[in-house]
Specification:
four-stranded antiparallel β-sheet; 15-stranded mixed β-sheet; alpha+beta; 31% strand; homodimer
């Protein structure tokens, strides 16, 4: 029988403690040791911060790792557990899914102790760390071939009280965008598992494309705002500057009708920028077939008046592949 | 015996003509048909524009394909041959090298008619299109995991007259940056082949990371400026706006001493932006080992007063992997 997932250190010690979360070995690979640190300042909110669920989204691991440098001074109460990289094999390979078993870690929660490596990571996190938290910040990005504004996101939640608490927490990041994202129930998401246990779960989508200096400053400011709102850190929250403005907006999008797909194969050219307002029929992008100049460019048009939330960048797209996501102001 | 590479249409016809460059089949794959168009307006400069040499650099193919829409009206003399995608298998796979044989197209020129597919593409271009041009614009980018300003680049050329002509042409793009890039002679580059034949060859490095609307506008403006400078298109050249400024600068860099490498493995965090001026010892970035919090972050520092030209974004880097490129003003 394989060993159980476990922590190599005592999280209940006061102040800083650090060590590893051990994900037991299986048939497909050896045991993994995920670096974890905990800052325990007594009574107060119990927060879990995770990054690196997908290996091609590196803002989260960077911002989470940087907490190690400033949080010990800043935190005044409660406990914060930080796991900068949930999925080391995916980060090493710079791939969304785990290269060993091809699985998406954010689709296999709560995981299986006798499953493949991605399922064993999910099982270790679900059993060892999740029970210790009342709030979870899972730090994602939108991947390399998309443009996406820094956002805190959530999905619609059946329980209206938890929905209100979650939306309030998402807005407390004061990132340029807060997004309520309705999409067809994907089983195995970390979000759903935590929410079903009554926890506040925020998925920060820290942009897409390039990880740059300015973007990291925005993400760190957003995370600090959220920690202040939780009462874990003292200070005055402030809107980070995005495109020379201190803006904030809460939007909603439905994956079923607001995700625009390419009707053909080709190279996608964005014809607008994220957060542009578009009217019905406006051109959002063009798809250039690569086979011949005889085939005209295919134009992707806005289905209705909306805001361009995400747009594909630098990609050869297939038929029915998503190229943009539009959204509307949330009335709440 | 396999057929020879050939064009399916007559390039000498006046005005617009279009068709394909056929790269013969070989042991590893069927024949490829690369879409090509030509605009023949009589006497004047003979220009070849190519994109998509590397499959993860899609600005070039987009800007080259867009020429099809505005060049017929704009061009007044000479001939322009456009191949938006030199390497279709690499673009389909979104990879730098050709997935079929693993080769870098820009390291196998002049190619081989009996070689693998990448060598056959190089052979077809070298034999069929290159002899028809006195000037070549090869439209590259810097790849998905780098931040890089829109630039026209060249390498030092032994012949001082060709060097001066080439630098003048590079600066005529009026892109934010012109770069003279000295690096250890890499055999098989398209640049070197063309320059050895006395041609002016400009490698436009259209940035890195995200292909977005604003960036494409800059690249297209740069290409239009170059066409005006060549006398192929009428109009007034103008500096495109980059980061709210109309800037231009010519810099030089040496790959041997100006490429900063990571001394360790980890996630790279950029601590500055491209075009920032740094002094000796300034921190350019940090590498976070992923194994443990016991290992400190490794800081990458500027070796001397210089300008950060390119910086890695969103990557797990290995020992000795490049993370930044610095440069200095070229005195000329």
């Amino acid at each position: 029988m394989s060993e159980a997932p476990h922590l190599t250190f005592d999280l209940d010690k006061p102040d800083m403690s650090k060590g590893h979360l051990v994900v037991p070995k299986g048939a497909d690979c050896e045991a993994l040791s995920l670096p974890v640190f905990s800052l325990n300042k007594g009574e107060g909110p119990q927060l879990l911060i995770t990054g690196g669920c997908h290996g091609d989204e590196l803002e989260g691991p960077i911002v989470a790792r940087r907490l190690f440098e400033w949080l010990p001074e800043a935190q005044t109460c409660g406990r914060i557990i930080v796991v900068p990289v949930l999925n080391p094999p995916a980060v090493l390979a710079c791939t969304r899914n785990t290269p060993i078993d091809g699985l998406n870690l954010n689709r296999v929660f709560p995981g299986r102790s006798d499953g493949s490596v991605t399922e064993r990571i999910a099982d270790a996190v679900s059993r060892t760390l999740l029970p210790l938290a009342d709030t979870v910040f899972d730090l994602h990005s939108f991947g390399l071939t998309w443009d996406f504004p820094p956002s805190s996101t959530t999905h619609p939640i059946a329980d209206p009280i938890l929905m209100a608490k979650t939306l309030q927490m998402a807005e407390a990041f004061k990132l340029p965008m807060t997004l309520v994202w309705e999409h067809p129930g994907s089983p195995g998401m970390f979000d759903t598992l935590a929410q079903n246990q009554g926890k506040v779960f925020i998925c920060a989508e820290f942009g897409g494309g390039t990880v740059n200096f300015d973007a990291i400053a925005i993400y760190e400011a957003g995370l600090r705002n959220a920690l202040i709102a939780l009462g874990l850190v003292e200070g005055k929250p402030d809107y980070p500057t995005f495109r020379q403005q201190k803006v904030t907006q809460t939007l909603e999008t439905r994956r079923s009708s607001d995700e625009l797909k390419s009707p053909g194969r080709g190279i996608f050219e964005p014809r607008c920028s994220v957060l542009d307002e578009v009217k019905q029929g406006d051109i959002i992008g063009a798809v250039y077939p690569m086979d011949s100049f005889a085939a005209d460019a295919i134009y992707i048009r806005a289905p209705q008046t909306s805001i361009v939330y995400a747009i594909r960048s630098g990609a050869y797209v297939d038929v029915e592949e998503g190229v943009a996501l539009v959204a509307r102001t949330l009335n709440h």
